[in-house]
Amino acid sequence: MTDQSQLALRIRRAKQLERGFLLLAWLLLTSLAAVFVGLFAGLFQAGWERLQLDFFLTFASRHAARAGILAAWVGTFVVMTVTAAVAVPLGIAAGIYLEEYARPNRLTTLIEINIVNLAGVPSIVYGLLALGLFARLLGFGASVLTAGLTLGLLILPIVIVATREAIRTVPNAIREASYAVGATRWQTVWGQVLPAALPGTLTGVILGLSRAIGETAPIVTIGAVTFIAFLPPAPLSADFPFLSFDWVWSPFTALPIVTFDWTSRPNADFRANAAAAALTLTALTAVMNGVAAWLRYRLRRRQQWQ
Length: 306
Description:
The mean pLDDT is 86. This protein has helices spanning 3-47, 53-57, 70-101, 106-119, 123-137, 144-168, 172-180, 185-212, 217-221, 255-263, 268-305. It is 74% helix and 0% strand. The protein has eleven helices and no strands.
């Protein structure tokens, strides 16, 4: 057999192997999609009748027909507000420092390794940490603040990694052009690097928040309430300075909590409520992922036009 025939045989085998892997990938993707569609169809069939306006505007009840998720979705919103306020500025600032300012040495290498490792730590570990540190040692209790800090720590490595990866995609020519006209390092980072890295950064932030919104183990560990019939205090006040932060100390519940509680009930009507709450949580997650994709598309198109 000549060298050309051997080469042709190797190329043919490589193409056959590539087609085999492609077929396997499509089969796995189709199987996963079918499983997801089946699960979602089961949830929709079990809970679509409860997806009415009063279900979203009433509090929890011991009677399944009168139970709603008002406190749950409001609690989810306020907890995610604290989570975003904690994780987004710290994560973006840490990513900028590690990528633009920190010098390569043993300390920065150790920090980078720890960030990657923290991204894979089970969420229950963050719940146990928050229970000992925030709830008991610092005395925050089972409050909105404790839940927001816990979930903020949970997604902080995700935000840092996403910010660093987005900054790495910015061409060095942009930095060099900024330095050439006399800009300082901070002016270059703030005015040139961050806007160019904004699509990837926002995508990572929203994906991190979409993960946090469905976490159950950490907020169960810190003592989130499963049955609650009131809302946190309003953030606005009639007295100066017209802002109130009493809501951060309020007890709370969330959509994952009520879903978990209703699923454990033996009554079939409560399981229908759990399916409806799970559909609501799935819809919120899908909306957040859709917003991330839309923002990335719009910002990249804007950068291309500029």
